Amino acid sequence: MANGLLLRAASPGLRPAAAANGVSSADSGRGHGAVTIGDSRTRGVALRLGGSSRRDLSFVTKASRDHSGLTRQLLDFQHDTIEEEVGAEHDPFMGLKARFLDFKKRNYVENFSNYQSLAEQQTPKFMVVACADSRVCPTGILGFQPGEAFTVRNVANLVPPYEHGGSETSAALEFAVNTLEVENVLVVGHSRCGGIQALMSMKDDSTSGSFIKNWVSIGKSARLSTKAAAGNLGFEMQCRHCEKESINSSLLNLLTYPWIEKRVNEGTLNLHGGYYNFIDCTFEKWTLVYRQGLEGGSKYAIKNRSTWS
């Protein structure tokens, strides 16, 4: 993302004729092409990456405010059977379809009563904060079954502090802790995390319009701690140290939420860290202790640390 990239409304000469007329396809058959819905006005969008101001790439972006029109199409066609098109063997959804039908046959049907209960309510014991990395699926790694873990995934499995304000992660935490009343929050980090690499690559005084850098900057305290503890090591080892440091930083950030701290103090909620190393397939877990008067005057300690290998 080092090169500047700027998007703006294109000149008429670059606008596809169909799009300019408000029609995206002449094919009106079901399942083919796209349909312009509602107010699809052309809006100029400027996206700048890397701080460059060069305007060397242009095209039209269309935005529609009438998403309800899309939903109406789904409702209209939900009972229709769409024939598979020629070349379906190259459709990436064919494999997913086969897996879903296998899941329905081997899992859903055989555990029908359980799924009917889940349809009425969920009572998970775990809230999991995991990374969005495709190699780190907490359900696959830890074997969570439907209804067992309320999960949110983001870049670098970070938990922002309470004062950071609203985010999808804080919203998920609020629902899991206050409504579902989970008993455990587990933050799962992992080896070779690209988000942590981005965090460790940041300059101390850097400012960026990158969503990634703005997000991972939540972990700056973990980065500083890593530099202090492992600054003499190579970049890869610093990242590995920070991968675990950031988990503990997120655990402490959890305690900045008043309703989480309250439940931890009451003993109804436990905070755990987990680290999945997919290089050698090991999993390390630990539990955070939070109370006044611990050894050394600290309020925090680690207990129940173990490695599964």
Backbone structural class: alpha/beta
Overall shape? globular
Determine the number of helices (DSSP H or I, runs of at least 4 residues).
11
Query: What amount of the residues lies in strands?
Result: 15-25%
Structure write-up:
- With about 300 residues, this protein is an alpha/beta fold.
- The chain is about 35% helix and about 15% strand.
- The chain has eleven helices and eight strands.
- It has helices at about 15-20, 65-75, 90-110, 110-120, 140, 170-180, 195-200, 210-215, 220-230, 235-255, 260-265, and strands at about 40, 60-65, 125-130, 150-155, 185-190, 270-275, 280-290, 300-309.
- The strands form two sheets. A six-stranded mixed beta sheet has the order 4-3-5-6-7-8.
- A hairpin with a 4-residue loop joins strand 6 and strand 7 (about 280-290).
- The protein is globular, with a radius of gyration of 24 Å.
- The chain starts with 16 loop residues before the first helix and ends with a strand.
- The relative contact order is 0.09.
- Residues about 1-60 have low confidence and may be disordered.
- Keywords: Lyase, Metal-binding, Zinc.
Topology of this structure?
Layout: H1 17-20, E1 40-42, E2 62-64, H2 67-77, H3 92-108, H4 112-120, E3 126-131, H5 138-142, E4 149-154, H6 168-179, E5 184-190, H7 194-201, H8 211-216, H9 220-230, H10 235-254, H11 258-266, E6 270-277, E7 282-290, E8 300-308
Helix pairs in contact: 9-10
Summarize the structure.
Helices cover 36% and strands 17% of the residues. It has helices at residues 17-20, 67-77, 92-108, 112-120, 138-142, 168-179, 194-201, 211-216, 220-230, 235-254, 258-266; strands spanning 40-42, 62-64, 126-131, 149-154, 184-190, 270-277, 282-290, 300-308.
